[in-house]
Amino acid sequence: DAGVTQSPTHLIKTRGQQVTLRCSPKSGHDTVSWYQQALGQGPQFIFQYYEEEERQRGNFPDRFSGHQFPNYSSELNVNALLLGDSALYLCASQTGLETQYFGPGTRLLVL
Amino acid sequence: QKEVEQNSGPLSVPEGAIASLNCTYSDRGSQSFFWYRQYSGKSPELIMSIYSNGDKEDGRFTAQLNKASQYVSLLIRDSQPSDSATYLCAVNPVWTDKLIFGTGTRLQVFP
User: Fold this and answer.
1) Cα–Cα distance between B99 and B44 in angstroms, integer?
2) Residue A85 CB-density burial (10 A; 0-12 exposed, 13-18 middle, 19+ buried)
3) Contacts of residue B40 in chain A, CB cutoff 8 Å?
4) Are A93 and A25 in contact (CB under 8 A)?
5) Bridge partner residues of B54 (DSSP)
6) Could you tell me which of A21, B12, B40, B53 has the fewest CB atoms within 10 Å of its CB?
7) For residue range B22-73, what is the model confidence (pLDDT) as tens digits?
8) pLDDT digits (tens, 9 = 90+) for A64-91
């Protein structure tokens, strides 16, 4: 039973560029949430996708956008990258109100 | 006041001792509470979930919840060096699936 997978594992971008991160949920899960974890901090909720729509959103600017596909996989897009966007980006999946399980994360470095 | 507060540590305990990790939260209507373990450079891994007042035990781990005091704790019995990690407390606010995390407590278990 495959868990949550994310790609790529690491990414280096420069300021102003755009990035797309990908997530495949755990088998049987239909809801995907994205979190940003800065160094030394706890994960911060970005948004959640269910039935291909953004269901909830945290306190992140519109530069952060996402998408969910019919197979429940999801993408996180960040435009106009800032140095402060450097972080570990975590995808978590769940079904219904059950517990969220995290993928291995994508570490983004913005130079 | 932060929504979820944890002492950042480090909490240092000798091998075989009991480690006690604490967390307070501000949203009195919160319904679900979680403890995640995060090794350096890795993603959070679920250890325990608790939904009702009292204790919940799973192996060497015991989660304790006191909703009146808005307090959650995690006890680790017979601590091992492999337990050395950051422990994240997470809370589901009322009427939402998103997780609100504390900044984590770093636990060090020395031989």
Assistant:
1) 12
2) buried
3) none
4) yes
5) B65
6) B40
7) 999 999 989 899 999 999 999 999 999 999 999 999 999 999 999 999 999 9
8) 999 999 999 999 999 999 999 999 999 9
Which amino acid type is present at position B52? S
Q: Which residue has the tokens 């679900």?
A: B32
B43·A56 Cβ contact <8 A: no
At A59, list the tokens: 């306190």
Q: What are phi and psi of A93, to 5 degrees?
A: -125, 160
Structure tokens at B80: 């091992």
In chain B, the residue whose alpha carbon lies closest to the alpha carbon of A33 is B98
Q: Among all chains, which residue has been given the structure tokens 């890795």? A: B42
Residue type, B54: G
Q: How far is A81 from chain B (nearest CA, A)?
A: 22
Distance CA B4, CA A54 (A): 25
